[in-house]
Design brief:
The protein is mostly helical. It has helices at about 15-35, 45-60, 85-110, 110-130, 135-150, 155-175, 180-200, 205-210, 225-250, 260-280, and strands spanning about 65, 75-80. Helix 4 runs antiparallel to helix 5. The longest helix has 27 residues, at about 225-250.
Length: about 290
């Protein structure tokens, strides 16, 4: 996905950060076993939160072990062992990675991204699609409709964000099964909206240079970042904070069975801190570094 949904480490208990990191490393290793070592590069913070949230929502039991890492084989880390739910999330990550790469290629004609999808991601995508046809169809439909609206330069930002938001809501419904609730679905739906708008505002500079579609650039003549922030900052702040309010309102009605501290930190503090960073940023806010 994008890499915006991260915890607020300064306001996180050590035990909760250790658990969060164990989920991150566990998902990374799970992806490696499921899809090959190169696919571990697609591990991201958004999918880590998705994994924590779904395990917290369903209460699926986890086991933590100390294991070495391919990046640091000497120093052992706490790692969540793969669960059936995590294997499903690894497949979701692969499916999303394929469509995200295809979308990026369509936008900027990147030969590197096209090669990465063709040589690495696509063959694992086909296996993940075969194991999860319903999930693959939801993601395909959502991205195709999103691409259509963007190509038509749709001016209805809510309609555009709705496509990605619906993907997250439906993925939650399928993976959570009987533990799915309307509150959980609404929370993930609004998180999807927040991610879409956050990414659009953060990427405005690049999109303007490449003349790519961006909901914040429709009918707007981009000059520089300072002018853009002055002209569009209030609109972006209103949209992102409205999304945050809806996320928090829904989260208040979500019943978690475990890991409440980790989820609460991300929802209450991490998203707010990221929103503030995006609105005042001088550099890219999406997170790609490993914890």
């Amino acid at each position: 996905m994008f890499g915006y949904v991260i915890p607020d480490k300064p306001n996180m208990f050590v035990k909760d950060f250790t658990l969060y990191r164990a989920f991150y490393c566990g998902l990374c290793k799970c992806i490696g076993k499921r899809c090959g070592q190169l696919m571990r590069l697609t591990t991201n913070y958004d999918m880590t939160f998705f994994s924590v949230f779904l395990h917290a929502l369903t209460g699926e039991k986890t086991e933590i072990k100390n294991e070495g890492c391919i990046l640091n084989p000497v120093r052992k880390k706490s790692v969540i062992k793969p669960t059936p739910l995590m294997l499903g999330i690894a497949d979701v990550n692969t499916i999303l990675a394929h469509y995200k790469a295809a979308d990026d290629v369509n936008d900027d004609k990147s030969a590197g991204k096209k090669a990465a999808d063709a040589l690495v991601i696509k063959r694992h995508f086909k296996k993940a699609r075969k194991r999860n046809p319903e999930i693959a169809e939801i993601v395909r439909t959502g991205y195709e409709e999103l691409g259509r609206l963007e190509s038509e330069r749709c001016e209805n930002e809510d309609l555009i964000a709705h496509q990605f938001a619906t993907i997250l809501k439906e993925l939650t419904r399928i993976l959570a099964k009987e533990d799915y609730s309307e509150a959980a679905g609404n929370m993930m739906y609004n998180l999807g909206r927040w991610v879409y708008f956050a990414d659009a505002y953060d990427d405005a500079d690049e999109d303007a240079k490449k003349k790519e579609f961006n909901v914040f650039l429709t009918g707007y003549e981009y000059k520089d970042r300072a002018s853009f922030v002055r002209d569009k900052g209030e609109d972006a702040a209103f949209i992102l904070n409205c999304c945050l309010k809806e996320i928090n309102n829904s989260f208040d009605n979500v019943k978690l069975k475990a890991y409440e501290g980790v989820v609460t930190n991300v929802v209450w503090y991490g998203l707010k801190e990221q929103t503030d960073r995006i609105l005042r940023r001088t550099d890219k806010c999406k997170q790609k570094i490993r914890i």
